[in-house]
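Reviewer 2 asked us to include a model.

Predict the structure of this chain.
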Amino acid sequence: MTKTVSLCPNTKYTMFTSSIQKFLNKNHYPCFSPKAVFFDMDGVLFDSMKSHTNAWVQAMLDMNIPFTHHEAYMNEGRTGQSTIDGAFNRTFGRDATEEEKQQIYSLKSKYFEGYDAPERIPFVLELLNTIKKQELIIFVVTGSGQASLIEGLEQSFPNIFQKEKMITAFDVQNGKPSPEPYLKALKKSGLQPWEIIVVENAPLGIESAKAAGLFTLGVNTGILEKEVLVKSGADIVFDSMEQVFEKWNELVS
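Predicted model (structure tokens):
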């Protein structure tokens, strides 16, 4: 018989209680007590995935590698090198050389920088301000190495993020869906896994967070079917960041 884990004392019962209870029971955690929120960047903070996918498709086509927008979304969260190796293995049956990786990623970055700077995802700033007022710790955990986006966090989200609370493609050996990025953020936070909420929009990002044992919200801001995020293991799936913002206090209560 599976032992049911109790919710923390003074927890209010909401529409999310059953999802939280399932998460606790599966991981054998003592309770759910959010103290930090880990945010993915592309598609969660910035509406940047259209530019990323267009840039990946064009860079791959320049190298005679078939690559679709859907494939780009499904690979979101991987490091650039891993994405390139995957495309090369599918097309040529081998990993890309370091020279080929540098060439393709340089092309991808050039195309990406040619697009207008991405806007914030609607309602994410309001959500971040709410979380900051609640004195929850805020991390960024991204597979991106796109310098312009990382540097633009302070400009787009003043006084929200701190560099020491970021895990990027430069900080890991294995990107998403490996749990390494989220495990590194967890270690940096000094918290327990049941004290974290992850906000992700990508299937591989959700897989990464779940492999790290973290409670994960899937937010469907892209072109994928909602069911893809469900199958990736998200504890709760929202249709937009506006919906997350509207339901946030009910979730963390």
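The CA atoms of residues 219 and 240 lie 6 Å apart. The domain at 49-113 is CATH 1.10.150.240 (DNA polymerase; domain 1). We have added this to the supplementary material.
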